[in-house]
Amino acid sequence: MDIRRVTVIGAGIMGHGIAEVIALSGIPVILEDAFPEALKKAENGIGTSLEKMKKSGRISPEKASEVLGRITFSSDLKESVKDADLIIEAVPEIPDLKISLMKQISDNCRKDAIIASNTSNIRITTLAKDVINPDRFLGMHFFNPPVVMKLVEVIKSEKTSQETFDNLFEFTKSIGKTPIRVLKDSPGFVVNRINAPESLLFCLIMDKKMAKPEEIDAFGKLQGLPMGPYELIDYVGIDTVVHSLKYYSETIDPEYGKCKFFDSFVEAKNLGSKTGKGIYVWENGHAKIPDAKPSSVIDLMDVLVVEINEAAKIIEEGIAEPSEIETGVKLGMNRPFGPISVAEGLTNAEIKKKLEKLSEKFDTRIFYPAKSIQQGKLRELLAGRHKATEPQAGTAEKKEPVQKDGASPVSLSMDQDKKVAYLTISNTRNNLISYDVLKGLEKNLTELWNSKEINVIVVRGSGENFSAGAQLTQFFSGPMDFAENARLGERTFRMLSEIPKITIAEMKGYVLGGGFELSIWCDMRISTPDAKIGFPEVTLGLIPGWGGSQRLSKLLGMSRATFLILTGERFDGKFASEIGLVSKLYAADRIDDETRSFAEDLATKVAPISAAIAKRLINKGSDVPADNGLEMETMAMGLLYGTEDLKEGISAFLQKRKPDYKGR
Ligand SMILES: NC(=O)c1ccc[n+]([C@@H]2O[C@H](COP(=O)([O-])OP(=O)(O)OC[C@H]3O[C@@H](n4cnc5c(N)ncnc54)[C@H](O)[C@@H]3O)[C@@H](O)[C@H]2O)c1
User: Fold this and answer.
1) Which atom of ligand 1 is nearest to the CA of 11?
2) In whole angstroms, what is the distance from residue 286 CA to residue 242 CA?
3) CA-based, 20 to 30 A from 473: which of 3, 250, 562, 590?
4) Total domain count for the chain?
């Protein structure tokens, strides 16, 4: 079913944002609320948000008024739902209120309309209790603020049909969000469920008087968190945390109810930022946190293993797959890494040991290792080879190939007629090189290695930048892990100089650090004159560690390479061209087209075997004494003698026609 008309019920913090997201995607929305003053507030909120987008140039003034024009504000529930294709409920997190509202909606909407709840925690199956045709009822959990946060959890209840689930999943993508599949209904779904034991941990630390909130928050800030855990709890609302823990104690494990520290704040109505007082006093949207020394009562690894443990339980219970959990935590908690990639850098034994200690220290089984960790099977679980990770019937054949991060940040497109492949990095605005980017490049280059259809590979970045470098916020468990990541980068980038295809880097915007290294492993570089190029590593306490310290001197000679690496100085594409690093320069508005036509021309003009052998001789020949290099060259000539392409090249030359090389 095409979703063309949407109704959002409840115009509060979430509802008004959801309505704005949908209207921004071009779909008309009715925003319904039982209270007219809530509608007025919602209209103002949407107006302010659109105004901000207009000011920052993200949308045009015409689009802003079109978007507002697509939203109808209403207090009449029956009227609002009667024609809708999709109805999204976003009223307060009170089970009875939601259950009775769902009944009203389903009594008054079309029998084929999809009904979704934006509940944060409540099992969807519970909310579907009185709905007619519960097969078209499911969860659609946006994150706050919906206009900014990319993540939406799409949740299947016990009764949701596969068709409804797939339909809403595709719709969520179409409105510009990144959905993850929650295959089985469970309290808290994925992101809030991963958060659940953490809330308990921070509550127990206070209950047991192990530290002061400001000491733990000082520790959190030291780890690079934008807000310490207690500051965040205050910001979200202590009542929200207390309600969630209570719900988890009733539905997941009674031990979620064993901590009382937060309750006293709720009783005193000191709920945090929204009441001006909670764990801290709040003024002008900021918590006044007393100065304190960072506490050492827990370390970062304690928090991370608690998350890994919960992620393992989620996989074991068949709620979501590892890649979806990783995406969910990264996007839902605004973090550079999720529990799955952290777990991949640790051993089962160390995770198990830490969890056992935590469980004992805090006297709760919530932190006790999940079954797969107890059995030493975490690796299999994460790789999807554990029984519990098998998707529910009917989902497997529909799923796209499993990628580490939901969608790979490196896309491969091929123009087989022209024999050119394009590898495009597209993640953040700066196209930072993360573990996922390296794995994406490795996978695609492996796929292209023996392809007869492709002779030339162009490596580029989407948007304005090639790549501003490595993702420095990635998690590493220690020196060996960090070194192995360096090895992965070097091994992957080196493929570009070894693959039997011509590789071209299309450089524009930022080409820095790891991004610069990526470009210099290519056979050729084409750049815009104003590209910003350089190795800032030494100014950050690093070195160009993905082969840059070795490769640059091969290309430029030791003197120039030493200067550029040791000063970290930035230079532009024009200078790069003057020193011979870049072979062609084109303005930003032409570089895509010019690189494309250059690549297409090379891909048919050059005999592929000759190109593959020539680049190998150049790269390997420079590592060996001249005599050996010349010997390699002679042998290569002998090898070429037998190729059809040599015969074709000479015949075409004599017949004054274009050669038709077959790579044989
Ligand atoms: N606030 C968050 O950070 C967040 C994030 C994700 C999900 N959620 C979930 O979204 C839902 C809504 O949360 P919120 O923060 O937007 O709440 P809110 O209190 O800001 O808004 C709820 C709105 O529902 C309206 N309402 C109440 N009863 C109604 C009825 N019978 N019919 C129509 N409207 C009614 C209220 O007038 C209010 O405008 C909850 O289930 C919550 O758990 C909240």
Assistant:
1) 39
2) 22
3) 562
4) 5
Residue 385's pLDDT band, with cuts at 50, 70 and 90, is low
| 496 found inside a domain | yes
129 and 15 within one domain: yes
Is 153 labeled as catalytic in the residue annotation?
Answer: yes
Please list, in sequence order, all residues whose beta carbon lies within 8 angstroms of the beta carbon of residue 412, skipping any fewer than 6 positions away.
421, 422, 423, 444, 447, 448
Q: Check whether residue 160 and residue 30 sit in a common domain.
A: yes
DSSP symbols for 243-276: HHHHHHHHHT-GGGGS--TTHHHHHTT--BGGGT
Say yes or no: 24 and 164 in one domain.
Answer: yes
Tell me how far CA of residue 191 lies from CA of 121, 144, 634, in angstroms. Answer: 10, 13, 61
Mean pLDDT of 495-522: 97
Whether the predicted pLDDT of 394 surpasses 70: no
Atom 21, ligand 1: residue with shortest CA distance = 12
Question: What pLDDT does residue 404 have?
Answer: 33
Atom 6 of ligand 1, residue of closest alpha carbon: 143
Does any domain span residue 351?
Answer: yes
**Mutation to probe ligand 1, out of 7, 13, 80 (largest number of atoms < 8 A from CB):** 13
Mean pLDDT of the chain: 92
Q: What is the pLDDT of residue 466?
A: 96
| Residue 393: pLDDT over 60 | no
CA–CA distances in Å: residue 398 to residues 175, 395, 409: 21, 5, 21
Distance CA 613, CA 600 (A): 20
Catalytic annotation, pick one of 106, 117, 186, 192: 192
Q: Which helix (H) or strand (E) holds 655?
A: none
Distance CA 434, CA 290 (A): 36
Is residue 47 one of the residues assigned to a domain?
Answer: yes
Q: Do both 114 and 26 map to the same domain?
A: yes
What per-residue string of b and e applies to 70-88 under the rule 16 or more CB within 10 Å gives b? bbebbeebeebbeebbbbb
Same domain, 61 and 176: yes
Query: Counting Cβ atoms within 10 Å, is residue 602 exposed (0-12), middle (13-18) or buried (19+)?
Result: middle
From ligand 1's centre to the CA of 317, what distance in Å?
29
Asked whether the beta carbons of 466 and 509 are under 8 A apart, the reply is yes
pLDDT attached to residue 409: 87
